Amino acid sequence: MADSGAQVTLQRPVEWGRDHVRGGGPGAATVLIYGDYLCPYCRRIRHVLERLCNAVGDRMAYIFRQFPNERAHPGATFASRAAEAAALQGRFWEMHDALYERPPPLTRDHVLEAATAVGLDIERLARDMESDAVRTRVDEDLADGRRNGVTVTPTIFIDGQRYDGAWDFYSMLEAVERPVGTQVQRTARAFASLPAAAALVLIAAAAAALAVANSPLTDLYRQVIDMPVGIGAATVRLAMSVGDWCSEGLLTVFFLLVGLEIRREMTAGALTDRRAAVLPVLCAIGGTLAPAAIYLALNRGATAPGWSAATSTGIAFALGILALLGRRAPMGLKVFVAALAVVDDIISMLILAVFYPGDFHALWLIPAGAAVALMAVFNRGRVYAGWPYLVVTVALWLCLHTAGVNAALAGVVLAIFIPTRPAPDAGPLLAQAATALAALEHAQSEARAAPEATSAEEQEPIWDWASRNLSAASQRLLSPADRVERTMAPWSAYLVLPLFAFSATGVPLAVDLSASGARNVIAGVVLGLVAGKPLGIGLAALAAVKARIAVIPDDTTLWAFLGAAALCGVSDPVGLLMAESAFPHGNFAAAAKIGVLAGSIIAAVLGVLILSVSPPPVTRATP
Protein backbone atom coordinates (compact mmCIF):
# COMPACT_ATOMS: atom_id res chain seq x y z
CA MET A 1 0.00 0.00 0.00
CA ALA A 2 0.96 3.56 -0.42
CA ASP A 3 2.92 5.12 2.20
CA SER A 4 0.87 7.80 3.81
CA GLY A 5 3.18 9.30 6.27
CA ALA A 6 6.75 8.13 5.91
CA GLN A 7 9.32 9.62 8.29
CA VAL A 8 12.14 11.41 6.41
CA THR A 9 15.56 10.66 7.86
CA LEU A 10 18.56 12.98 7.51
CA GLN A 11 20.78 11.45 4.82
CA ARG A 12 24.02 13.00 6.13
CA PRO A 13 24.01 13.00 9.93
CA VAL A 14 25.35 15.91 11.94
CA GLU A 15 29.13 16.17 11.57
CA TRP A 16 30.46 17.88 14.65
CA GLY A 17 33.73 18.82 12.96
CA ARG A 18 32.16 20.17 9.79
CA ASP A 19 28.69 21.50 10.58
CA HIS A 20 28.06 24.82 12.25
CA VAL A 21 26.93 23.82 15.76
CA ARG A 22 25.81 26.11 18.56
CA GLY A 23 25.66 24.65 22.05
CA GLY A 24 25.20 21.07 23.11
CA GLY A 25 27.55 18.29 22.17
CA PRO A 26 27.52 14.53 21.58
CA GLY A 27 24.44 13.11 23.29
CA ALA A 28 22.46 16.34 23.13
CA ALA A 29 19.26 16.70 21.12
CA THR A 30 20.07 18.11 17.69
CA VAL A 31 17.92 20.70 15.91
CA LEU A 32 19.20 21.10 12.36
CA ILE A 33 17.82 23.83 10.11
CA TYR A 34 18.17 24.20 6.37
CA GLY A 35 17.83 27.96 6.19
CA ASP A 36 17.95 31.04 3.96
CA TYR A 37 19.04 34.41 5.33
CA LEU A 38 16.38 36.24 3.30
CA CYS A 39 13.54 33.85 4.10
CA PRO A 40 10.98 35.70 6.28
CA TYR A 41 9.90 32.44 7.94
CA CYS A 42 13.48 31.56 8.87
CA ARG A 43 13.72 34.97 10.50
CA ARG A 44 10.59 34.29 12.55
CA ILE A 45 11.48 30.79 13.67
CA ARG A 46 14.94 31.99 14.75
CA HIS A 47 13.35 33.64 17.79
CA VAL A 48 11.74 30.31 18.74
CA LEU A 49 15.13 28.59 18.39
CA GLU A 50 16.80 31.21 20.58
CA ARG A 51 14.14 30.66 23.23
CA LEU A 52 14.65 26.90 22.96
CA CYS A 53 18.41 27.26 23.39
CA ASN A 54 17.88 29.36 26.53
CA ALA A 55 15.33 26.95 27.96
CA VAL A 56 17.14 23.68 27.25
CA GLY A 57 20.75 24.80 27.54
CA ASP A 58 23.48 22.31 26.73
CA ARG A 59 20.93 19.54 26.24
CA MET A 60 20.27 20.93 22.75
CA ALA A 61 22.59 21.63 19.81
CA TYR A 62 21.46 24.03 17.07
CA ILE A 63 22.92 23.24 13.62
CA PHE A 64 22.57 25.47 10.58
CA ARG A 65 23.03 24.38 6.97
CA GLN A 66 22.79 26.70 4.00
CA PHE A 67 19.84 26.44 1.62
CA PRO A 68 19.68 29.78 -0.23
CA ASN A 69 16.66 30.02 -2.51
CA GLU A 70 18.07 32.45 -5.05
CA ARG A 71 14.99 32.33 -7.26
CA ALA A 72 12.63 33.36 -4.47
CA HIS A 73 15.09 35.56 -2.60
CA PRO A 74 17.66 37.23 -4.90
CA GLY A 75 20.85 37.79 -2.97
CA ALA A 76 20.39 34.80 -0.65
CA THR A 77 23.41 32.98 -2.12
CA PHE A 78 25.61 36.03 -1.56
CA ALA A 79 24.55 36.14 2.09
CA SER A 80 25.21 32.39 2.52
CA ARG A 81 28.71 32.75 1.06
CA ALA A 82 29.36 35.69 3.37
CA ALA A 83 28.43 33.55 6.40
CA GLU A 84 30.67 30.70 5.21
CA ALA A 85 33.53 33.12 4.53
CA ALA A 86 33.06 34.49 8.06
CA ALA A 87 33.38 30.91 9.34
CA LEU A 88 36.93 30.82 7.90
CA GLN A 89 37.69 33.67 10.29
CA GLY A 90 36.03 31.85 13.20
CA ARG A 91 33.02 34.18 13.25
CA PHE A 92 30.21 32.15 11.65
CA TRP A 93 27.64 32.56 14.42
CA GLU A 94 28.35 36.26 14.85
CA MET A 95 27.80 36.80 11.11
CA HIS A 96 24.79 34.46 11.16
CA ASP A 97 23.12 36.54 13.86
CA ALA A 98 24.06 39.85 12.23
CA LEU A 99 22.51 38.81 8.90
CA TYR A 100 19.27 37.76 10.54
CA GLU A 101 19.10 40.84 12.78
CA ARG A 102 19.42 43.24 9.85
CA PRO A 103 16.02 43.86 8.22
CA PRO A 104 15.77 43.00 4.52
CA PRO A 105 16.63 43.72 1.84
CA LEU A 106 20.19 42.48 2.26
CA THR A 107 22.19 44.23 -0.44
CA ARG A 108 25.93 43.74 -0.91
CA ASP A 109 26.59 46.90 1.07
CA HIS A 110 24.32 45.74 3.90
CA VAL A 111 26.18 42.42 4.12
CA LEU A 112 29.54 44.12 4.20
CA GLU A 113 28.30 46.53 6.88
CA ALA A 114 27.23 43.57 8.98
CA ALA A 115 30.66 41.97 8.47
CA THR A 116 32.36 45.17 9.58
CA ALA A 117 30.14 45.35 12.66
CA VAL A 118 31.25 41.90 13.85
CA GLY A 119 34.94 42.74 13.29
CA LEU A 120 35.72 40.73 10.17
CA ASP A 121 38.62 41.38 7.81
CA ILE A 122 36.63 42.72 4.85
CA GLU A 123 39.36 42.19 2.23
CA ARG A 124 39.84 38.58 3.27
CA LEU A 125 36.08 38.10 3.43
CA ALA A 126 35.72 39.32 -0.18
CA ARG A 127 38.47 36.94 -1.36
CA ASP A 128 37.07 33.96 0.55
CA MET A 129 33.54 34.56 -0.74
CA GLU A 130 34.80 33.98 -4.30
CA SER A 131 36.96 31.01 -3.37
CA ASP A 132 36.21 27.47 -4.50
CA ALA A 133 36.06 26.29 -0.89
CA VAL A 134 33.20 28.62 0.06
CA ARG A 135 31.29 28.06 -3.17
CA THR A 136 31.66 24.28 -2.76
CA ARG A 137 30.50 24.43 0.87
CA VAL A 138 27.28 26.26 -0.04
CA ASP A 139 26.68 23.95 -3.02
CA GLU A 140 27.23 20.85 -0.84
CA ASP A 141 24.65 22.04 1.70
CA LEU A 142 22.20 22.72 -1.13
CA ALA A 143 22.77 19.26 -2.61
CA ASP A 144 22.41 17.64 0.83
CA GLY A 145 19.13 19.45 1.34
CA ARG A 146 17.73 18.34 -1.99
CA ARG A 147 18.68 14.72 -1.25
CA ASN A 148 16.68 15.07 1.96
CA GLY A 149 13.66 16.34 0.03
CA VAL A 150 14.11 19.95 1.17
CA THR A 151 12.23 22.32 -1.13
CA VAL A 152 11.36 25.17 1.23
CA THR A 153 12.96 26.98 4.13
CA PRO A 154 13.07 26.50 6.96
CA THR A 155 13.10 22.70 6.94
CA ILE A 156 13.78 21.30 10.40
CA PHE A 157 15.31 17.98 11.46
CA ILE A 158 15.23 17.03 15.14
CA ASP A 159 17.54 14.17 16.10
CA GLY A 160 17.91 13.22 12.44
CA GLN A 161 14.17 13.00 11.68
CA ARG A 162 12.32 15.68 9.76
CA TYR A 163 10.10 17.66 12.10
CA ASP A 164 6.66 18.23 10.61
CA GLY A 165 5.01 19.47 13.81
CA ALA A 166 3.97 22.96 14.81
CA TRP A 167 6.65 25.64 14.94
CA ASP A 168 5.56 27.23 18.21
CA PHE A 169 7.84 27.13 21.23
CA TYR A 170 5.98 24.57 23.33
CA SER A 171 5.52 22.09 20.48
CA MET A 172 9.20 22.22 19.59
CA LEU A 173 10.22 22.10 23.25
CA GLU A 174 8.33 18.81 23.63
CA ALA A 175 10.03 17.42 20.53
CA VAL A 176 13.46 18.41 21.87
CA GLU A 177 13.01 17.32 25.49
CA ARG A 178 11.71 13.91 24.37
CA PRO A 179 9.20 12.96 27.09
CA VAL A 180 8.19 9.30 27.17
CA GLY A 181 5.13 9.81 24.98
CA THR A 182 7.13 11.70 22.36
CA GLN A 183 9.88 9.07 22.35
CA VAL A 184 7.35 6.28 21.85
CA GLN A 185 5.69 8.19 19.03
CA ARG A 186 9.04 8.95 17.39
CA THR A 187 10.16 5.35 17.66
CA ALA A 188 6.89 4.15 16.18
CA ARG A 189 7.17 6.59 13.27
CA ALA A 190 10.79 5.59 12.65
CA PHE A 191 9.79 1.93 12.54
CA ALA A 192 6.81 2.67 10.29
CA SER A 193 9.14 4.47 7.88
CA LEU A 194 11.15 1.28 7.31
CA PRO A 195 10.41 -0.05 3.81
CA ALA A 196 9.51 -3.50 5.11
CA ALA A 197 7.87 -2.48 8.41
CA ALA A 198 4.36 -3.61 7.45
CA ALA A 199 5.70 -6.92 6.15
CA LEU A 200 7.67 -7.47 9.37
CA VAL A 201 4.57 -6.89 11.52
CA LEU A 202 2.58 -9.27 9.34
CA ILE A 203 5.27 -11.93 9.61
CA ALA A 204 5.43 -11.49 13.38
CA ALA A 205 1.64 -11.90 13.70
CA ALA A 206 1.66 -15.04 11.55
CA ALA A 207 4.61 -16.49 13.45
CA ALA A 208 2.90 -15.77 16.79
CA ALA A 209 -0.27 -17.52 15.61
CA LEU A 210 1.69 -20.56 14.47
CA ALA A 211 3.58 -20.69 17.76
CA VAL A 212 0.41 -20.44 19.88
CA ALA A 213 -1.53 -22.93 17.74
CA ASN A 214 1.24 -25.49 18.17
CA SER A 215 1.73 -25.01 21.90
CA PRO A 216 -0.21 -26.00 25.02
CA LEU A 217 -2.25 -22.83 24.44
CA THR A 218 -3.80 -24.20 21.26
CA ASP A 219 -7.17 -24.97 22.89
CA LEU A 220 -7.40 -21.45 24.31
CA TYR A 221 -6.43 -20.02 20.92
CA ARG A 222 -9.20 -21.94 19.17
CA GLN A 223 -11.74 -20.96 21.83
CA VAL A 224 -10.93 -17.27 21.30
CA ILE A 225 -10.93 -17.45 17.50
CA ASP A 226 -14.20 -19.44 17.41
CA MET A 227 -15.91 -17.41 20.14
CA PRO A 228 -19.18 -15.90 18.82
CA VAL A 229 -19.49 -12.14 18.99
CA GLY A 230 -22.80 -10.49 18.19
CA ILE A 231 -24.00 -6.95 17.69
CA GLY A 232 -27.51 -5.53 17.59
CA ALA A 233 -30.70 -6.10 19.56
CA ALA A 234 -31.68 -9.50 20.88
CA THR A 235 -34.34 -9.93 18.18
CA VAL A 236 -32.18 -8.72 15.29
CA ARG A 237 -28.66 -9.82 16.03
CA LEU A 238 -25.65 -10.30 13.79
CA ALA A 239 -23.35 -12.91 15.28
CA MET A 240 -20.08 -14.24 13.88
CA SER A 241 -16.98 -15.80 15.36
CA VAL A 242 -13.94 -13.66 16.14
CA GLY A 243 -12.16 -15.20 13.16
CA ASP A 244 -15.05 -14.35 10.84
CA TRP A 245 -15.17 -10.78 12.11
CA CYS A 246 -11.46 -10.50 11.30
CA SER A 247 -11.79 -12.00 7.81
CA GLU A 248 -15.05 -10.36 6.77
CA GLY A 249 -15.26 -7.33 9.03
CA LEU A 250 -11.76 -5.96 9.54
CA LEU A 251 -10.66 -6.88 6.03
CA THR A 252 -13.18 -4.34 4.73
CA VAL A 253 -10.61 -1.69 5.67
CA PHE A 254 -7.88 -3.54 3.77
CA PHE A 255 -10.06 -3.90 0.67
CA LEU A 256 -10.95 -0.20 0.91
CA LEU A 257 -7.26 0.67 0.63
CA VAL A 258 -6.77 -1.88 -2.15
CA GLY A 259 -9.63 -0.24 -4.02
CA LEU A 260 -8.15 3.21 -3.54
CA GLU A 261 -4.79 1.99 -4.81
CA ILE A 262 -6.40 0.39 -7.86
CA ARG A 263 -8.27 3.61 -8.55
CA ARG A 264 -5.14 5.72 -8.20
CA GLU A 265 -3.09 3.46 -10.49
CA MET A 266 -5.84 3.58 -13.13
CA THR A 267 -6.19 7.36 -13.02
CA ALA A 268 -2.67 8.64 -12.31
CA GLY A 269 -0.35 5.68 -11.90
CA ALA A 270 1.26 2.79 -13.71
CA LEU A 271 -2.02 1.67 -15.30
CA THR A 272 -2.79 4.90 -17.14
CA ASP A 273 -0.47 4.38 -20.12
CA ARG A 274 -1.51 1.46 -22.32
CA ARG A 275 1.99 0.08 -22.98
CA ALA A 276 2.96 0.47 -19.35
CA ALA A 277 -0.24 -1.21 -18.18
CA VAL A 278 -0.29 -4.17 -20.58
CA LEU A 279 2.70 -5.98 -19.07
CA PRO A 280 1.55 -6.11 -15.41
CA VAL A 281 -2.02 -6.91 -16.48
CA LEU A 282 -1.01 -9.86 -18.64
CA CYS A 283 1.55 -11.04 -16.08
CA ALA A 284 -1.05 -10.92 -13.31
CA ILE A 285 -3.40 -13.03 -15.40
CA GLY A 286 -0.62 -15.48 -16.21
CA GLY A 287 0.40 -15.51 -12.56
CA THR A 288 -3.13 -16.59 -11.67
CA LEU A 289 -3.77 -19.18 -14.38
CA ALA A 290 -0.46 -21.07 -14.11
CA PRO A 291 -0.63 -21.75 -10.31
CA ALA A 292 -4.27 -22.79 -10.65
CA ALA A 293 -3.37 -25.17 -13.50
CA ILE A 294 -0.53 -26.73 -11.52
CA TYR A 295 -2.75 -27.18 -8.48
CA LEU A 296 -5.58 -28.72 -10.48
CA ALA A 297 -3.13 -31.07 -12.20
CA LEU A 298 -2.42 -32.58 -8.77
CA ASN A 299 -5.89 -32.30 -7.25
CA ARG A 300 -9.22 -33.68 -8.35
CA GLY A 301 -12.57 -34.10 -6.67
CA ALA A 302 -12.89 -32.92 -3.08
CA THR A 303 -9.54 -31.08 -3.05
CA ALA A 304 -10.02 -29.21 -6.33
CA PRO A 305 -11.66 -26.07 -4.80
CA GLY A 306 -8.33 -25.12 -3.20
CA TRP A 307 -6.85 -23.94 -6.50
CA SER A 308 -7.33 -20.28 -5.56
CA ALA A 309 -5.08 -20.52 -2.49
CA ALA A 310 -2.02 -20.50 -4.76
CA THR A 311 -2.99 -17.45 -6.83
CA SER A 312 -2.67 -14.42 -4.54
CA THR A 313 0.40 -12.15 -4.44
CA GLY A 314 1.17 -10.28 -1.22
CA ILE A 315 2.03 -6.72 -2.23
CA ALA A 316 3.27 -5.76 1.26
CA PHE A 317 5.67 -8.70 1.41
CA ALA A 318 6.90 -8.46 -2.19
CA LEU A 319 7.55 -4.70 -2.11
CA GLY A 320 9.02 -4.95 1.39
CA ILE A 321 11.58 -7.51 0.23
CA LEU A 322 12.39 -5.44 -2.87
CA ALA A 323 12.94 -2.40 -0.65
CA LEU A 324 15.33 -4.35 1.57
CA LEU A 325 17.36 -5.35 -1.49
CA GLY A 326 18.12 -1.68 -2.17
CA ARG A 327 19.84 -1.02 -5.49
CA ARG A 328 19.55 -4.64 -6.56
CA ALA A 329 15.88 -3.90 -7.18
CA PRO A 330 15.59 -1.04 -9.73
CA MET A 331 12.73 1.42 -9.50
CA GLY A 332 11.12 0.23 -12.74
CA LEU A 333 10.92 -3.28 -11.31
CA LYS A 334 9.24 -2.03 -8.13
CA VAL A 335 6.66 -0.13 -10.17
CA PHE A 336 6.00 -3.26 -12.24
CA VAL A 337 5.52 -5.44 -9.15
CA ALA A 338 3.24 -2.86 -7.54
CA ALA A 339 1.09 -2.63 -10.68
CA LEU A 340 1.00 -6.43 -11.02
CA ALA A 341 -0.08 -6.77 -7.39
CA VAL A 342 -2.87 -4.22 -7.94
CA VAL A 343 -4.24 -6.25 -10.87
CA ASP A 344 -3.73 -9.42 -8.83
CA ASP A 345 -5.87 -7.89 -6.07
CA ILE A 346 -8.65 -7.22 -8.58
CA ILE A 347 -8.53 -10.85 -9.73
CA SER A 348 -8.51 -12.11 -6.13
CA MET A 349 -11.59 -10.08 -5.26
CA LEU A 350 -13.39 -11.39 -8.34
CA ILE A 351 -12.46 -14.96 -7.38
CA LEU A 352 -13.85 -14.47 -3.88
CA ALA A 353 -17.08 -12.95 -5.18
CA VAL A 354 -17.70 -15.44 -8.00
CA PHE A 355 -16.38 -18.79 -6.78
CA TYR A 356 -16.96 -18.64 -3.01
CA PRO A 357 -20.25 -16.83 -2.43
CA GLY A 358 -21.32 -19.09 0.47
CA ASP A 359 -25.04 -19.61 1.03
CA PHE A 360 -26.19 -17.35 -1.75
CA HIS A 361 -29.42 -15.35 -1.37
CA ALA A 362 -29.85 -13.34 -4.54
CA LEU A 363 -32.71 -11.17 -3.24
CA TRP A 364 -30.33 -9.34 -0.92
CA LEU A 365 -28.40 -8.12 -3.95
CA ILE A 366 -31.32 -5.79 -4.73
CA PRO A 367 -30.85 -3.59 -1.62
CA ALA A 368 -27.09 -3.96 -2.12
CA GLY A 369 -27.51 -2.51 -5.60
CA ALA A 370 -29.61 0.29 -4.16
CA ALA A 371 -26.81 1.11 -1.69
CA VAL A 372 -24.28 1.22 -4.54
CA ALA A 373 -26.62 3.49 -6.51
CA LEU A 374 -26.98 5.79 -3.51
CA MET A 375 -23.19 6.07 -3.27
CA ALA A 376 -23.09 6.98 -6.95
CA VAL A 377 -25.66 9.70 -6.27
CA PHE A 378 -23.53 11.06 -3.41
CA ASN A 379 -20.47 11.06 -5.65
CA ARG A 380 -22.31 12.71 -8.51
CA GLY A 381 -23.76 15.31 -6.16
CA ARG A 382 -20.27 16.12 -4.80
CA VAL A 383 -21.10 15.13 -1.24
CA TYR A 384 -17.73 15.49 0.50
CA ALA A 385 -18.85 14.71 4.06
CA GLY A 386 -17.77 11.26 5.17
CA TRP A 387 -20.69 10.09 7.32
CA PRO A 388 -23.20 9.50 4.46
CA TYR A 389 -20.75 7.17 2.75
CA LEU A 390 -20.04 5.39 6.04
CA VAL A 391 -23.74 4.80 6.74
CA VAL A 392 -24.39 3.43 3.24
CA THR A 393 -21.24 1.27 3.38
CA VAL A 394 -22.45 -0.35 6.60
CA ALA A 395 -25.82 -1.05 4.94
CA LEU A 396 -24.04 -2.48 1.88
CA TRP A 397 -21.84 -4.64 4.10
CA LEU A 398 -24.91 -6.09 5.82
CA CYS A 399 -26.65 -6.77 2.50
CA LEU A 400 -23.61 -8.53 1.03
CA HIS A 401 -23.10 -10.57 4.18
CA THR A 402 -26.73 -11.67 4.21
CA ALA A 403 -26.58 -12.43 0.48
CA GLY A 404 -23.67 -14.79 1.06
CA VAL A 405 -21.04 -12.66 -0.69
CA ASN A 406 -17.86 -11.76 1.20
CA ALA A 407 -18.93 -8.48 2.77
CA ALA A 408 -15.37 -7.16 2.87
CA LEU A 409 -15.87 -6.29 -0.80
CA ALA A 410 -17.97 -3.35 0.42
CA GLY A 411 -14.63 -1.63 1.00
CA VAL A 412 -13.82 -1.81 -2.72
CA VAL A 413 -17.22 -0.33 -3.62
CA LEU A 414 -16.65 2.51 -1.16
CA ALA A 415 -13.24 3.17 -2.72
CA ILE A 416 -14.84 3.56 -6.14
CA PHE A 417 -17.26 6.26 -4.99
CA ILE A 418 -15.29 8.25 -2.42
CA PRO A 419 -15.09 11.64 -4.15
CA THR A 420 -11.91 13.22 -5.37
CA ARG A 421 -11.37 16.91 -5.97
CA PRO A 422 -9.11 18.82 -8.37
CA ALA A 423 -5.82 20.02 -6.90
CA PRO A 424 -6.42 23.40 -5.26
CA ASP A 425 -4.83 26.68 -6.28
CA ALA A 426 -2.27 27.32 -3.56
CA GLY A 427 -2.52 31.13 -3.78
CA PRO A 428 -6.00 31.59 -2.24
CA LEU A 429 -5.27 28.99 0.44
CA LEU A 430 -2.05 30.80 1.33
CA ALA A 431 -3.98 34.06 1.59
CA GLN A 432 -6.62 32.40 3.78
CA ALA A 433 -4.06 30.86 6.15
CA ALA A 434 -1.95 34.03 6.28
CA THR A 435 -5.03 36.15 7.03
CA ALA A 436 -6.08 33.87 9.89
CA LEU A 437 -2.60 33.82 11.42
CA ALA A 438 -2.15 37.57 10.95
CA ALA A 439 -5.45 38.15 12.76
CA LEU A 440 -4.26 35.98 15.65
CA GLU A 441 -0.94 37.78 15.80
CA HIS A 442 -2.69 41.15 15.85
CA ALA A 443 -5.02 39.99 18.64
CA GLN A 444 -2.08 38.73 20.68
CA SER A 445 -0.20 42.01 20.20
CA GLU A 446 -3.19 44.00 21.39
CA ALA A 447 -3.61 41.71 24.39
CA ARG A 448 0.04 42.20 25.38
CA ALA A 449 -0.19 45.97 24.93
CA ALA A 450 -3.35 46.31 27.04
CA PRO A 451 -3.91 43.08 28.98
CA GLU A 452 -6.38 44.67 31.36
CA ALA A 453 -8.61 45.90 28.49
CA THR A 454 -8.79 42.58 26.62
CA SER A 455 -10.73 39.76 28.23
CA ALA A 456 -10.59 36.07 27.37
CA GLU A 457 -14.17 36.29 26.11
CA GLU A 458 -13.12 38.95 23.60
CA GLN A 459 -10.22 36.79 22.40
CA GLU A 460 -12.24 33.59 21.94
CA PRO A 461 -14.17 34.56 18.75
CA ILE A 462 -11.01 35.43 16.84
CA TRP A 463 -9.35 32.17 17.88
CA ASP A 464 -12.41 30.18 16.80
CA TRP A 465 -12.62 32.00 13.48
CA ALA A 466 -8.90 31.55 12.78
CA SER A 467 -9.03 27.87 13.74
CA ARG A 468 -11.93 27.24 11.35
CA ASN A 469 -10.16 28.97 8.47
CA LEU A 470 -6.85 27.19 9.05
CA SER A 471 -8.65 23.86 9.29
CA ALA A 472 -10.56 24.55 6.06
CA ALA A 473 -7.39 25.49 4.20
CA SER A 474 -5.57 22.43 5.53
CA GLN A 475 -8.36 20.02 4.64
CA ARG A 476 -8.63 21.40 1.10
CA LEU A 477 -5.07 20.26 0.38
CA LEU A 478 -6.27 16.63 0.31
CA SER A 479 -9.31 15.14 -1.38
CA PRO A 480 -11.67 12.99 0.72
CA ALA A 481 -10.16 9.88 -0.89
CA ASP A 482 -6.63 11.01 0.02
CA ARG A 483 -7.66 11.74 3.61
CA VAL A 484 -9.29 8.32 3.98
CA GLU A 485 -6.19 6.59 2.62
CA ARG A 486 -3.78 8.52 4.85
CA THR A 487 -5.94 7.90 7.89
CA MET A 488 -6.68 4.22 7.34
CA ALA A 489 -3.36 2.98 5.87
CA PRO A 490 -1.54 2.69 9.25
CA TRP A 491 -4.57 0.97 10.81
CA SER A 492 -4.66 -1.52 7.95
CA ALA A 493 -0.92 -2.24 7.98
CA TYR A 494 -0.39 -2.44 11.74
CA LEU A 495 -3.75 -3.62 13.11
CA VAL A 496 -6.18 -5.02 10.53
CA LEU A 497 -3.82 -7.28 8.58
CA PRO A 498 -1.87 -8.50 11.65
CA LEU A 499 -5.12 -9.36 13.47
CA PHE A 500 -6.39 -11.22 10.43
CA ALA A 501 -3.05 -13.01 10.04
CA PHE A 502 -3.11 -13.98 13.72
CA SER A 503 -6.67 -15.30 13.44
CA ALA A 504 -6.15 -17.13 10.15
CA THR A 505 -2.59 -18.46 10.40
CA GLY A 506 -2.95 -20.44 13.61
CA VAL A 507 -2.75 -23.80 11.87
CA PRO A 508 -1.68 -26.93 13.76
CA LEU A 509 1.34 -28.17 11.87
CA ALA A 510 0.51 -31.70 12.92
CA VAL A 511 -1.94 -32.08 10.06
CA ASP A 512 -3.07 -35.61 9.31
CA LEU A 513 -1.11 -36.10 6.11
CA SER A 514 -2.38 -39.64 5.87
CA ALA A 515 -5.82 -38.26 5.05
CA SER A 516 -6.64 -38.72 1.41
CA GLY A 517 -5.71 -35.61 -0.57
CA ALA A 518 -3.98 -33.63 2.21
CA ARG A 519 -0.49 -34.06 0.74
CA ASN A 520 -1.75 -33.17 -2.71
CA VAL A 521 -3.28 -29.94 -1.36
CA ILE A 522 0.01 -28.89 0.24
CA ALA A 523 2.04 -29.89 -2.82
CA GLY A 524 -0.36 -28.13 -5.18
CA VAL A 525 -0.30 -24.86 -3.24
CA VAL A 526 3.48 -24.90 -2.72
CA LEU A 527 4.25 -25.70 -6.36
CA GLY A 528 1.65 -23.18 -7.51
CA LEU A 529 3.33 -20.37 -5.56
CA VAL A 530 6.97 -21.39 -6.07
CA ALA A 531 6.82 -22.60 -9.69
CA GLY A 532 3.45 -21.55 -11.08
CA LYS A 533 3.68 -17.86 -10.24
CA PRO A 534 7.08 -17.16 -11.87
CA LEU A 535 6.26 -19.50 -14.76
CA GLY A 536 2.94 -17.79 -15.51
CA ILE A 537 4.44 -14.31 -15.14
CA GLY A 538 7.47 -15.19 -17.26
CA LEU A 539 5.49 -16.80 -20.09
CA ALA A 540 3.01 -13.91 -20.15
CA ALA A 541 5.86 -11.38 -20.28
CA LEU A 542 7.62 -13.32 -23.04
CA ALA A 543 4.46 -13.48 -25.12
CA ALA A 544 3.73 -9.77 -24.60
CA VAL A 545 7.28 -8.72 -25.53
CA LYS A 546 7.38 -11.02 -28.59
CA ALA A 547 4.03 -9.61 -29.72
CA ARG A 548 5.46 -6.09 -29.19
CA ILE A 549 2.53 -4.98 -27.11
CA ALA A 550 4.64 -4.44 -23.98
CA VAL A 551 8.23 -3.98 -22.88
CA ILE A 552 10.27 -4.93 -19.83
CA PRO A 553 11.12 -1.85 -17.67
CA ASP A 554 14.19 -0.08 -19.07
CA ASP A 555 16.30 -0.40 -15.94
CA THR A 556 15.53 -4.11 -15.37
CA THR A 557 17.73 -7.03 -16.40
CA LEU A 558 16.35 -10.45 -17.25
CA TRP A 559 17.62 -11.97 -13.99
CA ALA A 560 16.13 -9.15 -11.93
CA PHE A 561 12.78 -9.67 -13.65
CA LEU A 562 12.89 -13.41 -12.93
CA GLY A 563 13.74 -12.68 -9.29
CA ALA A 564 10.76 -10.35 -8.99
CA ALA A 565 8.53 -12.96 -10.64
CA ALA A 566 9.66 -15.45 -8.00
CA LEU A 567 8.90 -12.94 -5.23
CA CYS A 568 5.35 -12.67 -6.55
CA GLY A 569 4.90 -16.19 -5.21
CA VAL A 570 4.91 -14.73 -1.69
CA SER A 571 1.25 -14.79 -0.66
CA ASP A 572 -0.63 -12.72 1.91
CA PRO A 573 -3.72 -12.91 4.14
CA VAL A 574 -5.92 -13.00 1.03
CA GLY A 575 -4.36 -16.37 0.18
CA LEU A 576 -5.28 -17.62 3.66
CA LEU A 577 -8.79 -16.22 3.22
CA MET A 578 -9.12 -18.14 -0.05
CA ALA A 579 -7.98 -21.32 1.68
CA GLU A 580 -10.70 -20.83 4.31
CA SER A 581 -13.29 -20.03 1.64
CA ALA A 582 -12.36 -23.06 -0.46
CA PHE A 583 -12.48 -25.47 2.46
CA PRO A 584 -14.91 -24.09 5.06
CA HIS A 585 -15.00 -27.49 6.79
CA GLY A 586 -12.58 -30.34 7.21
CA ASN A 587 -8.83 -30.96 7.25
CA PHE A 588 -8.03 -29.47 3.86
CA ALA A 589 -8.17 -25.81 4.96
CA ALA A 590 -5.29 -26.40 7.40
CA ALA A 591 -3.32 -28.20 4.69
CA ALA A 592 -3.90 -25.36 2.22
CA LYS A 593 -2.78 -22.77 4.79
CA ILE A 594 0.38 -24.75 5.49
CA GLY A 595 0.98 -24.80 1.76
CA VAL A 596 0.51 -21.01 1.56
CA LEU A 597 2.98 -20.42 4.40
CA ALA A 598 5.59 -22.90 3.15
CA GLY A 599 5.28 -21.78 -0.46
CA SER A 600 5.61 -18.12 0.51
CA ILE A 601 8.80 -18.76 2.48
CA ILE A 602 10.37 -20.76 -0.37
CA ALA A 603 9.32 -18.16 -2.95
CA ALA A 604 10.81 -15.36 -0.84
CA VAL A 605 14.14 -17.14 -0.45
CA LEU A 606 14.24 -18.03 -4.16
CA GLY A 607 13.45 -14.46 -5.23
CA VAL A 608 16.08 -12.95 -2.92
CA LEU A 609 18.74 -15.40 -4.16
CA ILE A 610 18.02 -14.61 -7.83
CA LEU A 611 18.01 -10.84 -7.23
CA SER A 612 21.20 -11.07 -5.15
CA VAL A 613 23.17 -12.61 -8.01
CA SER A 614 21.57 -10.54 -10.77
CA PRO A 615 23.71 -7.86 -12.46
CA PRO A 616 23.29 -4.24 -11.31
CA PRO A 617 20.40 -2.27 -12.81
CA VAL A 618 20.94 -0.89 -16.31
CA THR A 619 19.43 1.94 -18.27
CA ARG A 620 18.78 1.05 -21.89
CA ALA A 621 19.00 3.65 -24.60
CA THR A 622 15.65 4.56 -26.09
CA PRO A 623 15.65 4.05 -29.89
Number of strands: 7
Oligomer: single chain
Mind describing the biggest β-sheet?
5 strands, mixed
Report low-confidence residues grouped into runs of 5 or more: 1-5, 619-623
Q: Remind me, CATH topology of the largest domain? A: Na+/H+ antiporter like fold
Roughly how much helix do the residues carry, as a percent range? 55-70%
Domain module count:
4
Shape: elongated
The count of helical stretches stands at 24
CATH class of the largest domain: Mainly Alpha
By helix and strand content, what is the structural category? Answer: mainly alpha
> Can you list the strand order of the major beta sheet?
1-3-2-4-5
Strand content: 5-15%
Query: What is the rounded distance between the termini?
Result: 34 Å
Radius of gyration: 30 Å
| CATH architecture classification name of the largest domain | Up-down Bundle
Mean pLDDT: 82
Q: What is the CATH homologous superfamily assignment of the largest domain?
A: Na+/H+ antiporter like domain
